[in-house]
Recover the amino acids of this structure.
């Protein structure tokens, strides 16, 4: 893996960890700070599962799954052509996101979710690592679909 790519992954992990730390110091566990009334708020919630609190209480399974995901993503990275920068950066975003949440799970036993979004009756609580993962996934999926479409022409 290129040194500059490792630096990007570490930057993403640090960004995630620093925002969680700052929110925890500023707001405290369980409290909320509204940014856009009724829609967007800062909070500090402890998530003992995965996204949407799925698989709650099975931390070892989640950690093993995360480690396997990291291995698969690193393998995918090594099989991606060097000039496919969009796909590579998507993979780096996902590695940073997985790394940020993995650190929480390993050292705290839970993931710190800090951003709340409310739309109608749906409430989503996430963190920077989650956002990095989703953006990376969208970038990689888009890139693969475009490459597949180009090959089928």
């Amino acid at each position: 893996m290129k040194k500059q790519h490792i630096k990007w992954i570490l930057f993403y992990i640090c960004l995630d960890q620093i925002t969680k730390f700052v929110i925890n110091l500023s707001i405290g566990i369980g409290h909320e700070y509204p940014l856009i009334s009724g829609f967007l708020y800062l909070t500090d919630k402890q998530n003992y599962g995965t996204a949407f609190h799925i698989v709650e209480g099975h931390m070892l399974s989640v950690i093993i799954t995360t480690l396997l995901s990291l291995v698969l993503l690193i393998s995918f990275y090594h099989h991606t052509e060097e000039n496919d920068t969009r796909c590579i950066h998507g993979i780096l975003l996902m590695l940073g996101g997985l790394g940020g949440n993995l650190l929480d799970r390993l050292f705290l036993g839970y993931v710190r979710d800090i951003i709340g979004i409310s739309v109608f009756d749906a409430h989503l609580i996430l963190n920077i690592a989650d956002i990095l993962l989703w953006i990376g996934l969208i970038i990689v999926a888009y890139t693969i679909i475009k490459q597949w479409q180009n090959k089928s022409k």
Observations:
- The beta strands are 32-36, 40-47, 111-119, 122-126.
